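Technical annex, item 7. During the second reporting period the consortium partners agreed on a shared format for inverse folding records so that results from different sites could be compared directly. Each record opens with the tokenized structure and is followed by the designed sequence. A conforming record, contributed by the partner at site C, is shown below for reference.
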């Protein structure tokens, strides 16, 4: 598939190295990780040792000072080789770490970033609450100022990397007397902070080795220097970073659609029905043609947005469009590909079965399809 993204030789070297590393060191362990319910911590550290976590981070904090295309490659190869279950890796590298990099003080960066780059510390972000899904303005968790610090109370749910996270960027209200847009702040809460606890792994229907948890804050005391950026600016910080978060999710979903269709085409070529290959039948050809067209449309949009995002352009509307459309397209492709596998598509030994189940969550996290459409409508003046 022709790409419009300006990959250079150094990017392709990085991609080949990463792909080979994942194929040799990670893919053989996927089944045991599914049983375990998470990617073991030592494999996070292996990624860090090889320079595959947060490659864009400045060299002084352990990164390579690389451009965003390295992050795109990381997301694409993780999606291609490890599937949806490993979304926590790009979340760590390109959704959570940017908060610390953009809003952290020099002291905070030196304190937290090197360990996250090395994989010693795993990152998570806690926005969603049981009564406030994609509506960030409705969160109820609070932090009150007390002495030389803050005391946090509240609950968060559906937290990716939740059971293993060492550092969690937590959104709370520090002022309940003003609008949520003005009274929200971000704190970095460390794993062993008194009053902070994490549930066991939440049981999900898919993405089996992506650990997901609930978090509880009960009179959880943090120091003032755990405040990220300025007090009361949290909502705006979240809005600034959601463009990249949703773009990364869209990149992952796009690759998953491509991988599922590639595998299905190979299956249809080898599977015989009524004495001839399934791929020779017009119904199969039409379905494949339709899916390939949708995938090509998704790729064209995603690659354009990658380039525009790298230029620093504000593409919130377009990224919201991509996030809902590409993730819904992925689900259509997964459903059609499972159908083309016939009864075998319902057998867990066939990759398409797991891909179909795992794809479902893509339209939910990082903002549901309905919320994306609401954002688009608002930005169109409706």
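Designed sequence (site C submission):
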């Amino acid at each position: 598939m022709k790409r419009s993204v300006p990959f250079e030789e150094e990017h392709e070297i990085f991609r080949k190295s990463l792909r080979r590393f994942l194929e040799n060191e990670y893919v053989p362990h996927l089944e045991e990780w599914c049983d375990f319910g998470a990617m073991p911590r030592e494999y996070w550290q292996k990624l860090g040792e090889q320079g595959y976590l947060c490659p864009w981070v400045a060299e002084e904090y352990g990164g390579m000072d690389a451009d965003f295309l390295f992050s795109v490659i990381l997301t694409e190869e993780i999606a291609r080789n490890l599937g949806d279950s490993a979304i926590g890796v790009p979340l760590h590298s390109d959704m959570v770490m940017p908060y610390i990099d953009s809003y952290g003080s020099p002291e905070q960066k030196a304190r937290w970033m090197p360990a996250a780059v090395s994989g010693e510390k795993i990152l998570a972000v806690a926005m969603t609450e049981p009564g406030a899904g994609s509506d960030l303005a409705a969160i109820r968790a609070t932090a009150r100022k007390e002495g030389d610090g803050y005391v946090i109370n509240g609950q968060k749910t559906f937290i990716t990397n939740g059971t293993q996270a060492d550092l969690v960027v937590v959104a709370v209200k520090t002022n309940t007397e003003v609008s949520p847009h003005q009274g929200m702040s971000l704190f970095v809460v460390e794993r062993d902070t008194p009053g902070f606890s994490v549930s066991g792994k939440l049981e999900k229907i898919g993405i089996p080795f992506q650990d997901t948890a609930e978090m509880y804050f009960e009179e959880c005391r943090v120091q003032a220097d755990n405040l990220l950026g300025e007090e009361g600016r949290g909502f705006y910080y979240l809005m600034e970073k959601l463009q990249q978060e949703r773009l990364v999710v869209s990149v992952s979903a796009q690759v998953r659609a491509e991988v599922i269709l590639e595998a299905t085409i190979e299956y249809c070529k080898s599977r015989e029905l009524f004495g001839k290959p399934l791929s020779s039948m017009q119904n199969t050809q039409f379905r494949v043609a339709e899916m390939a067209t949708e995938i090509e449309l998704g790729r064209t949009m995603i690659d354009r947005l990658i380039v525009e995002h790298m230029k620093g352009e504000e593409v919130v509307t377009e990224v919201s469009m991509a996030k809902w459309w590409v993730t819904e397209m992925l689900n259509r492709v997964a459903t059609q590909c499972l159908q083309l596998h016939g009864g075998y598509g319902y057998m867990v030994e066939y990759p398409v079965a797991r891909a179909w189940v795992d794809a479902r969550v893509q339209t939910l996290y990082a903002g549901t399809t309905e919320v994306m459409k609401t954002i688009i409508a608002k930005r169109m003046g409706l």
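The chain has a mean pLDDT of 96. Residues 36 and 209 are 7 Å apart (CA to CA). All partners now use this format for quarterly exchanges.
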